[in-house]
Amino acid sequence: MASTFFRRIAKATPVSFAGEPRSTFGAIAAVTGGISYLYYYNSPNLAHLEEVKVEGSPKVALNPDKWIEFKLQDTARVSHNTHLFRFSFDPAAKLGLDIASCIITRAPIGQDAEGKTKYVVRPYTPISDPDSKGYFDLLIKVYPEGKMSQHFATLKSGDVVEVKGPIEKLRYSPNMKKHIGMIAGGTGITPMLQVIEAILKNTDDNTQVSLLYANVSPDDILLKQKLDFLAASHPNLKIFYTVDNPSKNWKGGSGYISKDMVVKGLPGPSDDTLILVCGPPGMMKHISGDKAKDRSQGELTGLLKEAGYTEEMVYKF
Q: What's the pTM?
């Protein structure tokens, strides 16, 4: 059972979890947009943290070639269908996550005809600072038919989850572009936050960031307090919210992200501009087109193409 303090932290994110130094959160954890369920059979490549120590190198918890068990420390409810999960490991080690990358999780879903264990596998993006030692945090939306998210919802303190990674998505480097625009839908905010936090905590990074964030309702905006705090304290971050079902006192945008929102809210097409996109399949099709079947970037379509951006100016998570 999460403590009262832990529950409070889940709602007011500029502060940290109980027992940790005060710090802002990293990126929100979420399913990387558009990746289907993958099923893996029982693998001998399961290790514990102490098996992946490298002599002379900083100790890291992740291993890209082996499944590592991480123990659940605590949980908290963030919204009506979203939960925060903290996993612990050797306090002397770092997770070993790069910007921008995700981890892969797996959970058993039964056995095949030969009695071998089958797994459902899903990627998630930790919200905690990559430099944090001894723990990482995942923010996960629980879907009624979501095999992995339903598994997470049943976890209790002390249970373990198998993790592999990191899996690099976009290789970010400071000042790689003058202006980065972002379009996120729902839990697609997570890789955006990972990049945003990397930019804002680096005083030598002068990148300007503009975010368009779409959700069903104001109550579905994950970690809005966190986002507002970052925007209020960093002049190089601008955020515009839009929702399908606005409340009576809602002061943001209404409806799907439109071409007008893109033109007014994002940097214009330029060699010094990069637009990042992540969200559910329907939104991806509307904004940029989805990735190709082989998970490469695929053809650029949708609003971004109409607005004059090229494939070199857009990255789909």
A: 0.80
